[in-house]
Amino acid sequence: MKDKPRIKRIEIQRFDYQLKDIAPLPGHTLFAYEPGATMTLKAHAMKIITDEGVTGEYVGSWASTDWMAIPEYAHILIGRNALDREGIYNDLKLELRQRARLGLSQLDIALWDLAGKYYGAPIYELLGGNRIDLPCYASTHTADEHPGGLNSPEAFADFAEQCLEMGYPGFKIHPWADGPVSRIVDTIHAVGKRVGGKMDLMLDPYCAPKTFGDALKMGWACDEEKFFWWEDPFRDGGISAFAHRKLRQLVKTPILQLEHVRGLEQHVDFIVADGTDFVRGDPDIDGGITAVMKIAHAAEGFGLDVELHAPAGPERRHLMAAIQNMNYYEMALVHPKAPFAPQAPVFKGDYKDRLDAIDKNGCVQVPQGPGLGVEYDWDYITKHSQGVKVIE
């Protein structure tokens, strides 16, 4: 019997990259369209190297705190069977129980890439999936105040119409972080009147509205325009099952929650408490591909759909290809004047996640190569490196 590959070395590299015409919103960690601006962001790249010469890779542009935590404990993985993803997942849940399981997600995704390369198969096939074409919805940048941007209800309606003409079957509004809720309500109606009935519509105010009452006003507007779902409607932070159960009793539009609730068990608790209609999953913060598959199967057992949170990326495409109770791939974040998604530009070849990435049917395709099925541009990563952590 062939020896299993053992983890010999883990490398984590931080690097910087820049986005043009994007800047932080004053007083917020959110960012939005800002003509002429240049914003520097940090990302991380990982290699899990085995004694058999097989290497798992993953590059992430988000969840920096998770990445920075990994060197503190990754030594316990040296010598482990790199194919024992389930065992490593469960052991790290124990070891990181007082550390919010930081870094578990990133390690898990890299291990799935490694497994695919070891077996010579794309991740979605290892997961049992066979869906190649993945329907997308256009998920906007946060609203802004600039001419030509997403600066008004009509501007959102214009952009929704543009996305419809491009082939997108769905469109999600990320409205203003500040200001009256009436402007959000007006935007819901403007978009609904323009493209309602022609594409699925969603609203994500990302917990910015301050009161339950504000949430009701938005929810009732979504009801009038027959929105497909709405999510994170007010300042509770998206974590109160009771509050969202009350909203579900008062608003007809299905609610999508759990972006800010981490892990399998917490997701199930929220579902059992009647706090959501759609279930959010995120491989970068819920525990990787392993955990999201568990969440998807749990949701399926309750008759619910799971929808993956952005950022877009190959790991999400593989998950969607393998999960039947999922409707859309979130193409985020897009804008009429800043069409590039905010992920680091680290892919060689033709892989891309941006406004014009879809085909005529509004779909993207799952990569077909082994593992994640993409080739990372390590020359770019090394050129912009801010340091490497090595665990061996």
Question: Would you write up a description of this structure?
Answer:
This protein is α/β, with parallel strands linked by helices. The protein has 2 domains: 7-121 and 373-391, Enolase-like, N-terminal domain (Enolase-like, domain 1, 2-Layer Sandwich), CATH 3.30.390.10; 126-365, TIM Barrel (Alpha-Beta Barrel), CATH 3.20.20. Helix content is 33%, strand content 23%. The protein has helices at residues 64-69, 85-95, 104-119, 123-126, 153-166, 181-195, 212-225, 241-250, 264-272, 288-301, 314-322, 378-383, and strands at 7-24, 31-50, 55-60, 133-140, 170-173, 200-203, 229-231, 255-257, 278-281, 306-308, 329-334, 363-365, 385-391. The strands form 2 sheets. Strands 4, 5, 6, 7, 8, 9, 10, 11 and 12 form a 9-stranded mixed sheet that branches. A 4-stranded antiparallel sheet has the order 3-2-1-13. It is globular, with a radius of gyration of 21 Å. It starts with 6 loop residues before the first strand and ends with a strand. The model has no long low-confidence stretch (mean pLDDT 96).
Offer a concise description of the structure.
The protein has twelve helices and 13 strands. The chain has helices spanning 64-69, 85-95, 104-119, 123-126, 153-166, 181-195, 212-225, 241-250, 264-272, 288-301, 314-322, 378-383; strands at residues 7-24, 31-50, 55-60, 133-140, 170-173, 200-203, 229-231, 255-257, 278-281, 306-308, 329-334, 363-365, 385-391.
